Amino acid sequence: MNERYSRQILFPGIGKAGQEKLSDARVLIVGCGALGASHAEMLSRAGVGHLKIVDRDFVEFTNLQRQTLYRESDAAERLPKAIAAKMRIAEINSEVEVDAAVADVNRSNVEQLIVAADLVLDGTDNFQIRYLLNDACVKLGKTWIYGAAVSSYGTTMTIIPGETPCLRCIFEEMPDAGSAPTCDTAGVIMPIIASISAVQVSETIKLLVGARADLHRSLVQFDLWQNDWRKIKLSKPNPDCQTCGAHIYDFLDAESPEFSAVLCGRNAVQIAPPRPTTIDLESFGEKLGHLSDVKTNEYLVRFTSGENEITVFRDGRAIVKGTDDVSVARSLYARFVGA
Ligand SMILES: [Zn+2]
How far is the CA of 242 from the centre of ligand 1 (A)? Predict the structure, then answer.
């Protein structure tokens, strides 16, 4: 076994046999922003042999404060994150095989993306994809590790279908569009990213080497600014859960509503929320106060991000101008409106 892993092999929880399991393992990282980049770096240094990284975004200068894999040159060239991550990992550990996919994860491709993975790691920034991942992972019996961080707080849980509660056992309904803070409205500090990612990656390594008795089996939450650390012990799945109890996969089911995106006119995309919602435009406009050109009236909030002008209406719809790429529009919606 390669000398580079000697300190990890020395660690009794992993050992030589564990290291061999890591090198054979296949992990899918969905989203390679702050959390995903941290997962990818730690797993490649640890010698996890096969990583698949899926992300729909490009590197921007505002990412560099917390997205550890990326450099100024990646932002200057507007490289897709999945591609920049693959290039950087090749420099960190050339033994790791990285499959980079520049793609929007949706119900048409999610099962195909996860089917070959031993484990799925959440590096996304929105609930729409997380509920979809939960459906797909429960359906295919794949373990996935939920993680989220914004501002100075974060949360994570490890979901083993049939054994632990799933995301919907704990959070039955997706938060309404515009109701939850995002990194683009509330900000974020890097230490919370590193902390949540550290818990997710530790759980990943435990699962891959077979140390299941050491899983935390909790909903872990902490706030690094308020010094508040919580661990809510989880027991069995909820037998009344729509997803893992009744096996009804609302988010995978084509009949169910999801955030629809349609091209409207030239160079504009409209995003609509999956169920009726009402956005408090005044407070939404205030949340965007750090942007220089926010216009709020009783019907809409309009602001710009880079080359895109985004108009959000009271019913949760948004029109993103400056693109005809649905995944770019969905990404901006997730970042600023949140869902
Ligand atoms: Zn469930």
Answer: 7
